[in-house]
Amino acid sequence: MATKDIVLPDIGEGVTEGEVVKWLVKPGDMVKEDQPVVEIMTDKATVEVPSPFTGSVKEFRCKEGDIVPIGKPLMVIELGSDSKTAAPLTAAPRAPAPAPSPTQVMVAPNIMAAASSGGLEVYPPVAESSVLATPATRRLAREMKIDVNKLTGTGNGGRVTREDVLKSLNATFSAPAAVSKGITAPAYVTSGKGAEERVPFRGIRRKIAESLQMAKHIIPHFTLMDEANVTQLVEMRTQLKPLADKQGIKITYLPFVIKALIATIREYPMFSASIDDQSSEIVYKKYFNIGFAADTPNGLLVPVIKDADKKTIYQISREIVELATKARDGKLALEDMRGATITITNIGSVGGTYATPIINHPEVAILGMYKITDKPVIIGSDWHPAKFMNFTITADHRLIDGAVAANFLKAFLNRIENPSLLMLDMM
Asked: What is the dihedral of CA 207, 210, 213, 219, to 10 degrees?
């Protein structure tokens, strides 16, 4: 019988290759036209590639964990009697699929999954690309102004790795010899004193790692922390909760934090900006798309609430629940994770007191909110119980100075401590 190759189709969004995360069929299986056969992970999302033919799986042309360029054969299908021999050799990928169970964004991100970043550009352009490199590696090379085509890859099959890019970058610095040689991660050496298990470091978990390493390498981070008396905020949420419950809305503190953050950014617009290193420009964003870190069984994702300044507390509450549910179920669409101007990470939801979050590149700041604790305060001559919450602001020191960040945090906390001010900001 005749055979046909199923190749990795053009996924769009500037993606030039993807990682084979999970086969959905096995050799010998019968598949129908448009049946998903493999999960492919890119910097943007996980997609299911369907078969354009009906037939049986004859063989795989690559294995799980392989990095596959667009157009490379994934598997061979032996055509069945009812298959469409005139079918195209490629198939459009389906909507983003649930993340593979053992791994997970940004994007992300932050923190974070880098799945949440804006449109991907490739440097050099795809048409001029003569080497293998993942989209994350190409992005890093572009931001470091390094021509990836001029590098010698040390990865499988000559693939250019992130370490190859960083070595090339270090070699251009006027630095001591120890630095100019670049930094290579040492191999793990087992102690041999206990049971160990090795599993492949791939899929979304690896994408998260690559994005976080890139963000920490590019952005000079610094973090400020302060506490806020949120007694009035707790009371306001308590008052609004019955009405929200009647509408089937779960109302948390995050929508109030989002509103306070937006109002504060209006005073300090540099916190909703990005640095375009290629053009040496600061990009100030005139819109408010707020990302929030969502913890899922497969890793951290950053859904984005678009135009949050135009939505009510209840509307934001409903959207948070919807996006968080989609994230946990692995059903976030690519559009759900794109275009954030700043991100909030709510570590307090799992009991955290303080942290130093990593900025979700290309953003320049990330706000952290933490658990609520009870503390006594003096009012007049008497002690009274009060509710306190810690907040952090982590900023990109290339654009934001320490004093500016301190004033930003002070203005934000003033709104959080006096939630009635939020009503004035929304008028």
From this structure: -80
Active site (annotated) includes residue 361: no
Domains of the chain: 3-79 (2.40.50.100), 114-189+199-207 (4.10.320.10), 220-425 (3.30.559.10)
Look at the alpha carbons of 17, 20, 24, 26 in this order and tell me if their dihedral is positive or negative.
positive
Which residue in 217, 221, 361, 397 is the catalytic one?
397
User: Is the pTM above the cut of 0.85?
Assistant: no
Distance CA 403, CA 393 (A): 12
**Which residues make beta-bridge pairs with 76?**
5, 59
Taking only the tens place, the pLDDT of each residue in 252-286 is 999 999 999 999 999 999 999 999 887 889 999 99
151-171 tens-digit pLDDT: 888 876 677 887 788 777 655
